[in-house]
Structures are given as C-alpha cells and as structure tokens.
Amino acid sequence: MGKILITGASGHLGGLVIKHLLETEKVAASDIIAASRNPEKLAGLAVKGVELRAADFNDPASLATAFQGVDKLLIISTDAMDGEGTRLKQHKMAVAAAKAAGVGRIHYTSLPRAEESVIGFAPDHLGTESAIRESGLPFTFFRNNWYAENIFYGLPHALASGQWFSAAGDGRIPYLLREDCARAIAAGLARHETENKVYTLTGGEAFTASEVATIASAVTGKPVAVIPVTDEQLTEGLKAAGFPAPVAAIFASFDTNQRLGLFEPVTGDFKALTGREPASFKAFVEASKAALLG
Ligand SMILES: NC(=O)c1ccc[n+]([C@@H]2O[C@H](COP(=O)([O-])OP(=O)(O)OC[C@H]3O[C@@H](n4cnc5c(N)ncnc54)[C@H](OP(=O)(O)O)[C@@H]3O)[C@@H](O)[C@H]2O)c1
After folding, report:
1. Domains identified in the chain, total number
2. Which pTM value belongs to this model?
3. Does 130 share its domain with 30?
C-alpha cells in the first residue's frame, strides 16, 4: 500500500480516522502520514511510527511539501465558516496542491445530497466536490451525515428549559456517531478502489426532533416539548439568544434541511464499507445522560 495522508489530523475526526486505520484496518504506521497545522500536537502518533507533516490550507507552500509522495489523500473539511467563502478557497488550494504533487486519489468529507442541500454551507462542499472532479484525479467522497454528537449543541439547553424550538417538522436525521464516520472513512481509505466513489454515511435509523426529544426525556427524566416554529422565527430567536446573524441563519438552515427530508434516506454505505451495522443512536443518547444533564 502507498502512503495515506490525513489532513486535519489533530481534529476529532482526523484522530479517529488514524486510530481506525491502525487498529481496525491494520494499516502499517509507516504507511500513514498525519498532517496538521500543529503537528507538534501529534507526538503520540510519532511514537507509534506515523510520520508527521505540517499542512495548512491557508499556506500553499506547506501543502506542496506535505503532499509529496502521497498515494491517497484524505482532505478533512475545515471548520472555517465566516460566510466569506474562506473554506471553499482553502479546499480548492488543497485540491490544486494535490494535483500538482501527483497524489493518486483524493478522498473528501462532504455532506449528504450536496447538490440539493439547503444547509448554509452546502456550497462549500459542492464546490469542493466540483473542484475535485475538475482536477481529473480519482476520487472518493464521504458524504457524512449529522454526527450524533451534534445533539450536545442544543439538547442540554432544551432539556433544562423544557422547550425545544424547532423548524424541522417531521423531517428525520439518520445520525451516526463520529467514531462510526471515522471507521467507515478508514475502511474506504484502506480499500483498493478503481472507480470514483460517492458514499453517503448514515446511521441505521432516522429520527424526527420529537422522537429525539422523547428518547432524551426518557433517559434524563426531564420533560421537553418540541415547539414548532417557522424558519424566520427560529433565525430571529437564535439572534435574540446572541448568535451573529450569519451563524443564526446557518443554524436555522439545519432545521430547514431536515424538514425537507434532505438528511435522508438511511443508506447501506456504512455497512458496505465496514461490514457491520452502525452504532445505535438511541444507545448513544442513553450513554450521554450525564452530558445531556450538563
Ligand atoms: N457531519 C457533522 O455533523 C459535522 C459536524 C461538525 C463538523 N463537521 C465537519 O467535519 C470536519 C471534521 O470534524 P471534526 O469533528 O473533526 O471537527 P474539529 O475537531 O473541530 O476539527 C476541525 C478540523 O479543521 C481542520 N482545519 C482547520 N483549519 C485548517 C486549515 N487552515 N488547514 C487545514 N486544516 C484545517 C483542523 O485541522 P488541524 O487543527 O489538525 O490543522 C481539524 O481537523 C469539520 O472541520 C467540519 O468541516 C461535520
């Protein structure tokens, strides 16, 4: 196997992908390169024999060096969400550097139904997918569904107040654990692909906001009522709670996307890659009781 480079290796997902490459896929540490803006944070991987490289999507020179000799590149989408197109620029820089360095295949973490998604930052993902297609390099897209861990953003507050303002209607989300996301990506990186691939990674079951509220109430003993609101009411409420307008609009777009069914459907791609069922979302909520109670 040639060298596999993971960008953003000090992030949550990057670290878990490397863990699963080593432990689940049994890829030799000497075939893995962990790239980060802060490789000094990754000393623990160096001890295991993983090579560390500095790579910052804002610094093309660092990418030209980092991507040398790489067969498979995993571009983990960055967390830059300033509403000014920075993330797409960063990703395009990484794609151009991969092409120039002669990388064998690009793997990219995208989002479900990128062409139709109404999530505020969906254009970053679709634009990156397009740039990768246009590069002519072989590719694998992992269209990752919502992490189960995302419930920690709003649910603890909803449980504390007893009210969950939602514009998601009866739309469903097939949450998957971040760990499962990493497990599937590691499996995809380890396999020998000859075609371009688009995998949509989901959990095994999809849930409405009301169903999540019911599960969380049962686990914590705290009643929570889902209060239906419009997209505009949700955006205004988030602004009133102190979120800057562009952030409020992005958060509200998550509910719109859910209501329109654009996180759905559940797919079999996780199992196709890993040979196992995704972890249960319900069991995850049960195991998160303490975190949900804050
Ligand atoms: N599906 C979902 O529910 C969901 C939820 C949250 C986020 N996401 C997306 O998935 C990505 C990974 O998730 P996560 O949980 O691992 O997030 P995270 O722990 O917040 O990691 C952020 C990642 O962005 C990388 N990054 C930031 N600026 C960069 C730059 N200039 N150049 C290169 N890399 C840069 C970081 O790499 P280094 O610090 O190592 O350089 C790190 O891997 C996120 O960045 C975001 O795009 C998806």
Report:
1. 2
2. 0.97
3. yes
